[in-house]
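tool_call: predict_structure(chain=1)
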Amino acid sequence: MYRMLEKNAASSVEKAIKSLEWGDIKEIKFEEPPQRDMGDLATSVAFQLAGKLKKSPVEIAQKLEEVLEVKSPFERVKSTGPYLNFYLNPEIFSKMVLESVKEDYGSLEDKNEKVILEHTSANPNGPLHIGHIRNAIIGDSLSRILKAAGFQVETQYYVNDMGRQIAMIVWGLQNLNYNLDPDEKPDVEIGKLYFQVNQELKKNPEIKNQVSAILKTYEEENPVELEAKFKNVVKQCLEGIKETSQRLHITHDRFVWESQFIRDGSVDRILETLKNHTSHNDVLYLDLTDYGIEKELILTRSDGTSLYTTRDLAYHLQKSEQSDVVVDVLGSDHKLAVDQLKIALGLLGGKTPEVIFYEFITLPEGSMSTRRGVFISVDQLMDEAFTRAIDELTERRPELTEQLSTEIAEIIGIGAIRYFIARLSPEKHLVFKWDEALSFERGCASIQYAHARACKLLEKAGTPDLSPIELDDLNFQDLDTLEIDLLKTIAKFSSIVENAAQELRVHPIAQYAMEIAGAFNKFYKSVPVLESEKEMLRLVLVDKSRITIRNCLDLLGIDAPVSM
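tool_result:
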């Protein structure tokens, strides 16, 4: 809606500029004025013209005001200093907003472009832990945003089944008296074994050579029995990872195993293509000094086996061939590796991936304990969120049944984790704080509560379906300022989605979710709805707010409860 308003206003400004014979202007930028009396949309186009026309911006703005003809839904324009301020017709604008909000509000036109988005891709050597969660939540939320923006999106999990960690676990199965507990989550059991192997390595460094031998045999000879052990370890671990992910509302469309790029000859073809660019000094490597990177890209080990980076090149070539846009979500410690990868991909003719780097997430010391003191798993994090949400609900809503309290606590707990992580720019270091995350006043619960309030109000009014209502029959005169503010906030949603998709950013959606919830809560507390003279119009506004909040939360992978 806001994009349409900007185009409308820009068209009027462009026409005025041409009528004054001031030539053409490339782009006219708009912003929301800081105060209500300054209008609904403002442009500083006078500054853009000042240098060219050798006139003051104030004079230019005044002249444009004299000749500018506004179009509906704007009713007037006024110059204030160097700015041109556009004022909406409240009745026309309000009706346009309410008409635009359908059940799929926020979904944009199909762009006919395929995006392959890789995220999470944790090594299958144990359960997902707090170090993985920011990657997973950013990736999943971004996939939802891109889909809403009209892209065809395939999410992928790159399975590192040929890494040293998996070979270590296989060595443990062969050499340690360890039986996986069938009653425990398989990823947890794999993680325990991996921890034990690491302890053995500390006591006996010679084990490292045995692990290397297993890895070399698996890559070069791939005996049936050894392959079965590798695949069994990875599959079991992935089962547990999928279970954890699903509870966090995260799924992947496709799991791509890196071993396929060895088995199908992709890695060999890459090495052959790059042979005129490579050097050999115990290991095969790509010298990148001509590209401003001092650290070479190593392609094979001294024993001739491939490295993760080599297989990753093959994987990125596959993604290049199968999509229009490649997107990766990676920790900030991968920046050098990505720079190296992009150069090698350029030599191979592959697409340059768009990469979202994120800083890591930590917990304040003492805020949560672990059972083994090794790491904090995502399962533990979710369990803790659930427990804290139950405690909060017991205090706030003691009348709730156990079943309903459990259901709501799970929704609140998962929402708290996802929102707290999504709300910040990925470049910022994040310390997870429970009091903020689970706050009913400042956290995701406050947004979910706004949705529940809207549902409760509609239920109380006995209006389950407002779609047959004709907006032309409603009274739009003398709208309350809080109604206008809420309508203006609702109108931003599609533009927020479009911009977030273009910039590959999740946090603007999270910030907007808080903004729309805040605007609705102000309206809810101060503007009477039931039994007011504008009851039906205000119920429609409540319903459109409900849809907008729900759809916004859905982009963040968060449920919108009907009761809290």
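agent: Residues 115 and 558 are 23 Å apart (CA to CA). Proceeding to next step.
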